């Protein structure tokens, strides 16, 4: 944090960025390509980690900033909200809900929802959705990645709740799963960029936050 830019461009030197595995693969390629093109003297060291490890690493100085699903505890951190990412329901191609173009929350009553390991913030969210709609969470089949729960959904083991960034890049027509949006605007995850309060490079981090918003749009 003792770095001070000597040029008009605040994005120079090295930045250590911690990223959640449910975000990195879907946001980082476009972000890194743009940073390299527009700020060629900047080096970004990207390290993936589970949410608790990311927060701990930010607090102790392992990371300069982290990209994660909000909320993140363990500060004091500055939290820059980037965007709300809608959630989709993924199911096997022969599931009865495939006939619907939009899934109403009431359609999920009595269904079984696949989930990630409890260390992921998305797992907490799926559990809350299950309570809200009257579904159950399949704790015996917790996935280690979004790919894992998508594959289990494709085999008819349950329904997977997947974020839009994953759906955009990983699901195509004719694949092993069919995805449908959820009616209304209640179900989404909020993504943020966080850094330590009082960080000397806060202006540079703010520029990166703006670029991430553009990448998602």
Keywords:
alpha/beta, elongated, 9 strands, nine-stranded mixed beta sheet, D-Maltodextrin-Binding Protein, domain 2, disordered N terminus, single chain, 217 residues, 33% helix
Task: Give a summary of the structure in a few sentences.
With 217 residues, the protein is an alpha/beta fold. It contains six helices and nine strands; from the N terminus they run E-H-E-H-E-E-E-H-E-H-E-H-E-E-H. Helices cover 33% and strands 27% of the residues.
Describe the structure.
By secondary structure, the protein is of the alpha/beta class. The protein is 33% helix and 27% strand. The chain has 6 helices and 9 strands, in the order βαβαβββαβαβαββα. It has helices at residues 21-38, 51-60, 121-133, 146-154, 164-170, 202-216; strands at residues 13-19, 42-48, 65-69, 77-92, 112-114, 136-137, 159-163, 177-181, 188-196. Residues 1-6 have low confidence and may be disordered.
Strand content: 25-35%
Q: Tell me the number of strands.
A: 9
Q: Percent helix among the residues?
A: 25-40%
Question: How many discrete domains?
Answer: 2
Mean pLDDT: 93
- Overall CATH class of the largest domain: Alpha Beta
CATH architecture of the largest domain: 3-Layer(aba) Sandwich
Low-confidence runs of at least 5 consecutive residues: 1-6
Taken in chain order, the helices and strands follow as EHEHEEEHEHEHEEH
The count of helical stretches stands at 6
Looking at CATH, the homologous superfamily of the largest domain is Periplasmic binding protein-like II
Radius of gyration, in Å, reads: 19 Å
Shape: elongated
- Structural class, from secondary structure content? alpha/beta
Largest β sheet strand count, sense and barrel closure: 9 strands, mixed
What is the rounded distance between the termini? Answer: 30 Å
CATH topology of the largest domain: D-Maltodextrin-Binding Protein, domain 2
